[in-house]
Amino acid sequence: MLQIGTYHTLKTARATKVGLFLVNETEEVLLPNKYVPAEYHIGDDLTVFIYLDHEERPVATTLKPYITLNEFAVLKVNYTNSFGAFLDWGLEKDLFVPFKEQARPMEKDKRYVVFLYLDEKTNRLVASSKINQFLEQEEIDLMVNQEVNLMVSHITDAGINVIINGLYKGLAYKNEVYETVSPGYKTKGYIKQIRPDGKIDVSFQKLGFEVIDDSAKHVLQALKDNKGFLKLTDNSHPEEIKTVLKMSKKTFKKAIGSLYKQKQIDLKADGIYLL
């Protein structure tokens, strides 16, 4: 079955006035003329995205949408009407978000984190900003210190809320994040703690001794990029260290301590020198 909302690699079968028909073992779908490659041969494989056109018929495109089935992404609202909101997802036909699937009323030109799912009643692709319902709350298959993929969902006073591996909800504390982030920001992270109630704390940096090694490498690279000198010392303000090196003062001190012991740097009153 040609699942809509996903990519498929299909064979080119026959050319018509309206486009190129692509087939698998049992089905065919139209690739409209505007998406047909300048050069192709019947029998060639072609990777396309399948979705429903304005008449609710499956159709293929070589355009790459910003989101695919069962994924999260940040999308902009193109317009709203009495039925809901319509998002720009990189294709001709906008992506629909009914009112009942809006965590709060969506507004034109604003961006929201949404999940793309298939409405089984209508067989249509629908987006939802009520993302918690699509995240696993109980069976958590993660380990402390595990490297994971993170996407920022929203930021609150409590911290930076993230989606872990597209499956779980997590939280990073603001005072432990040293880069500028916003909803949709993606990065590697690490599981810091899994609480008894299932809540997950994450870190944007490696934990324990490993972070010292990575931070030491970062300091060395910064020194090389700045002609072997950084105007930072033990007495530098934490915000200055955060601005220059994107790390906490605690991590900075451990990193330069490690480098000093390895005789890779010299620490003087005016700053750090590369040896």
TrEMBL record:
InterPro entries listed in its UniProt record: CvfB_fam, CvfB_S1_st, CvfB_WH, NA-bd_OB-fold, WH-like_DNA-bd_sf
Segments forming domain Conserved virulence factor B-like winged helix: 218-274
Domain Conserved virulence factor B first S1: 4-62, 74-128
Residues of the signal peptide: none
PANTHER family, per the entry: CONSERVED VIRULENCE FACTOR B (PTHR37296)
UniProt record similarity statement: Belongs to the CvfB family.
Protein name: S1-like domain-containing RNA-binding protein
